[in-house]
Sequence to fold (102 residues):
Amino acid sequence: KVRKSKGHAAAHDYEDSVQQLINFAIADFRSWLASNHAYPDRVTQVSWAKESWKEGCKHYDIEMAFNNELIKMITCRTSHLTGEVKAKLRPLVESVYGFECS
Fold:
């Protein structure tokens, strides 16, 4: 870690190489959500986040252990993705089914 977090941990608190790994793991985790289950339970989220971290390590050919802070940074994307999907689908559902916006 390069600097102490102000509040929640963020990728920019880490060295550039670790930031790349974090971003890779987040993207991989989002693909798990999009392709498997958008609302996994906490145990599943943590499991997928750990797998995503390991995939990132393989991709960048490095070995780096994860910690709870990193896993939290990855899994907090669950609600981000589901919110994005809802925002994109809402107008479509409204027009297809004739719902009125409120």
User: Anything to note?
Assistant: Residues 32 and 48 are 7 Å apart (CA to CA). Helices lie at 16-35, 42-60, 68-75, 77-97. The chain has a mean pLDDT of 88.
